Amino acid sequence: AKIRIICNLIFDGSVSKSKEYHYNIMYVNSSLGLVNKFIEDMKKVYNVNSSSFEKIKGKNVDHFRVKYCSKEIFDDLLNYISSYHSSKTNLPSEVTNGKIEYKLIALRNFWDNEGSINKRGILTADLKNKSLIEQLSNLHKEFGISHYISRYWKNGRAYKPILSKNKDNYNKFLKLKLFTDSITTKGLYKGKRKLEILRILYKKVSLKKG
Question: Is the entire prediction scored with pTM above 0.90?
Fold first, then answer.
C-alpha cells in the first residue's frame, strides 16, 4: 500500500509545503476507482481521512482530486525520496532494489497514471525525466516486456517507452495487469477503461508472433 502511495504521488500527485508551512499531499486522476484506491491506501497506512475531495469539471472528462494536510505524513514520505516531481525524482531504492511485487506495483502505477493505448493498439507513456524513464525501462526488461525508448520535444526534451506490438507483449501486459482502473481521457474511446480498450484491440489489431 505504501509503495502504491509513493508511486501514485510521483506520477500524478504532489507532496509540498507552502510558505505558510502548510503540508499538502495531493493525488489527481480521471479515474474515480484509482482515487478511491489511493484513499483506501492512505487510510490503511496512515489511518487518516482526506482533508478534501473534489470533482473537477474537465474539457473531455472530469477529474477527481483528494488532499491531505499533515506534517507527519509529509515528513514520512520524504524519508523515501527528496522530491515528488516526476521531472526531478527517481523511484525509491525500496522499489528498484526491492521485492518483485514492489517493482510490479511501480509499473502498474506508471501505466495507470501515464500510459495510453491508441486505436492502432500501440501502448506508450511519456515523462520528461530521463533517469526515471531509464529506471522504468529496466523494470520492463525484468518482466520480459520488449520496448524501445523514443526521444522527442514537448516543451523540452521528453521520453517515452513504446511497447513492441506483438502477442507476447500483449499477453504479458494483460497477465501482469498493468492497467487496472485507469480510463482514457480523449479520442475514440474517451471515458472507457484502458484495460477494456486493450482487450478490444487485442482481438482486432494485427499482431506479430513472439
Answer: yes
pLDDT tens digits along 182-199: 999 988 888 899 999 998
Region label for 82, one of left (φ > 0), alpha (ψ between -120 and 50) or beta (otherwise): alpha
| One-letter identity of residue 50 | S
User: Can you give the C-alpha Rg of the chain in angstroms?
Assistant: 17
- Candidates 59, 37, 33, 39; CA nearest to 183 is 33
Task: Retrieve residue 37's grid coordinates.
Answer: 484506491
CB 161 within 8 A of CB 148: yes
Residues 10-58 have pLDDT tens digits of: 999 999 998 777 999 999 999 999 999 999 999 999 999 999 999 999 8
Q: Report how far Cα 161 is from the mean position of its chain's Cα atoms.
A: 13
89 in Cβ contact with 6 (< 8 Å): no
Q: Which of 26, 13, 22 is nearest to 52 (CA)?
A: 26
DSSP at 121: -
